[in-house]
Amino acid sequence: MRIGELAARTGVGERSLRYYEQQGLLASDRTPGGHRDFPERAVDRVIRIQELYAAGLNSSKIGQILPCMRDEDGGPSVRATPALVAELAAERDRIDRMIGDLVRSREVLDEAIVAASGRIAAEA
């Protein structure tokens, strides 16, 4: 499939797809006219890349972890190093801390909403 179709099917811009390819995260063949030709499995790969970005990983880390992850076309081709696993666990711990902070922030807002609602009701 051409880059425009891949972009449409994944919701990821063509510029980002070119960047993924430049970083070695995504691969394509070339048509005789020089256009990129992506395999069907590229859709799943782009979605996986987006999920990893959303998890807070950068392209370098994604490049290290992608070969260790199960893809649509089979199992992982390599095992992650202990150092990479430790880095990923540290990133997960950071996200857990952020989630805890967000939950506490929501609780404070809930208290403020209740307090503000009580004042409005008392004034009415």
TrEMBL record:
<dbReference type="InterPro" id="IPR000551">
    <property type="entry name" value="MerR-type_HTH_dom"/>
</dbReference>
<dbReference type="GO" id="GO:0003677">
    <property type="term" value="F:DNA binding"/>
</dbReference>
<dbReference type="GO" id="GO:0003700">
    <property type="term" value="F:DNA-binding transcription factor activity"/>
</dbReference>
<dbReference type="InterPro" id="IPR009061">
    <property type="entry name" value="DNA-bd_dom_put_sf"/>
</dbReference>
<dbReference type="Pfam" id="PF13411">
    <property type="entry name" value="MerR_1"/>
</dbReference>
<feature type="domain" description="HTH merR-type">
    <location>
        <begin position="1"/>
        <end position="68"/>
    </location>
</feature>
<keyword id="KW-0238">DNA-binding</keyword>
<dbReference type="InterPro" id="IPR047057">
    <property type="entry name" value="MerR_fam"/>
</dbReference>
<protein>
    <submittedName>
        <fullName>MerR family transcriptional regulator</fullName>
    </submittedName>
</protein>
